[in-house]
């Protein structure tokens, strides 16, 4: 027997309507009994490099009727591979993943599985990350500190291909986007940040090219561009930037 109040509890109020996704089909909701019929599984991928976080997310999400954790990953590259294999409806992706950061992983997940929506799940809310999220076309962003209150709502929204940002994050996203100066060279692109992360993690240009599925020359170009924008003259300077901006953990 399904628990009628656990699915979309906040969605129906007043004159508001909801659009249910193709992956979640509800034939009928009785206004008297609240019964849900015809429920298909909502498939979810969890990507976080901390096992305790994955366990916590799994516990929260598995309690929802009709929701299934189809895969887990501990780094960005594996997240992309698992998404290709399982084609989840929603992928919950930590930003600070090793090997490939969450935004780059999200871009590749969407490339290989266009129907998968991605929720960036992070403890960071810096301006550069917010810009990356917008520019990558990611529809969901949630701070880990807000998970207990908003995680279920976020997954529900993304399952219907609707964006989800908390009110405070929505305001920050808009402000970050509007405040970006035209022609600015002080902010790295998403791909440049991915390259800097890999360099800071100790990967060679060749290894970075393999991980990002681009040529070694492309990596060299992004690396040179990042160093020019940051006025960095050594690999050590790139590593310091990566640590300061939480692209890698010290």
What does this structure look like?
The protein is of the alpha/beta class and 250 residues long. Helix content is 45%, strand content 14%. The chain has helices at residues 51-62, 76-86, 102-112, 127-135, 147-159, 167-178, 190-200, 205-212, 216-230, 235-244, and strands at residues 28-29, 36-37, 42-47, 67-73, 90-94, 117-122, 140-143, 164-165. α2 (76-86) packs parallel to α3 (102-112), α4 (127-135) packs across α6 and α8 crosses α9.
Low-pLDDT stretches: 1-38, 182-186
Numbering strands along the chain, what is their spatial order in the largest sheet?
4-3-5-6-7-8
Number of helices: 10
Please give the share of residues in helix: 40-55%
Order of helices and strands: EEEHEHEHEHEHEHHHHH
Number of β-strand runs: 8
Shape: globular
Strand content: 5-15%
Secondary-structure class: alpha/beta
* Biggest sheet character: 6 strands, parallel
Topology record:
Layout lengths: L27 E2 L6 E2 L4 E6 L3 H12 L4 E7 L2 H11 L3 E5 L7 H11 L4 E6 L4 H9 L4 E4 L3 H13 L4 E2 L1 H12 L11 H11 L4 H8 L3 H15 L4 H10 L6
Parallel strand pairs: 3-4, 3-5, 5-6, 6-7, 7-8
Antiparallel strand pairs: 1-2
Outline:
The chain has 250 residues and is of the alpha/beta class. Helices cover 45% and strands 14% of the residues. It has 10 helices and 8 strands.
Structure characteristics:
8 strands, alpha/beta, single chain, six-stranded parallel sheet, two-stranded antiparallel ribbon, 250 residues, disordered N terminus
């Amino acid at each position: 027997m399904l628990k009628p109040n656990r699915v979309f509890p906040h969605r129906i109020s007043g004159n508001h309507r909801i659009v249910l996704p193709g992956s979640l089909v509800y034939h009928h909701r009785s206004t008297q009994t609240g019964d849900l019929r015809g429920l298909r599984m909502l498939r979810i991928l969890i990507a976080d490099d901390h096992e305790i976080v994955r366990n916590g997310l799994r516990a929260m999400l598995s309690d929802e009727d009709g929701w299934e954790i189809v895969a887990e990953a501990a780094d960005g590259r594996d997240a992309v591979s698992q998404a290709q294999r399982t084609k989840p409806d929603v992928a919950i992706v930590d930003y600070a993943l090793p090997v490939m950061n969450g935004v780059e992983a999200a871009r590749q997940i969407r490339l290989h599985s266009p129907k998968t929506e991605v929720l960036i799940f992070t403890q960071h809310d810096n301006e550069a990350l917010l810009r990356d999220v917008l520019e990558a076309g990611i529809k969901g962003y949630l701070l880990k500190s807000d998970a207990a209150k908003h995680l279920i709502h976020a997954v529900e929204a993304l399952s219907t291909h609707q964006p989800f940002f908390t009110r405070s994050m929505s305001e920050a996203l808009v402000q970050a986007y509007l405040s970006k100066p035209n022609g600015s060279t002080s902010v790295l692109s998403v791909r440049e940040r991915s390259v800097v992360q890999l360099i800071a993690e100790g990967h060679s240009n060749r290894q970075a090219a393999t991980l990002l599925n681009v040529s070694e020359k492309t990596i060299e170009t992004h690396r040179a561009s990042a160093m020019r924008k940051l006025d960095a003259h050594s690999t050590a300077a790139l590593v310091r930037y990566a640590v300061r901006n939480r692209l890698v953990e010290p």
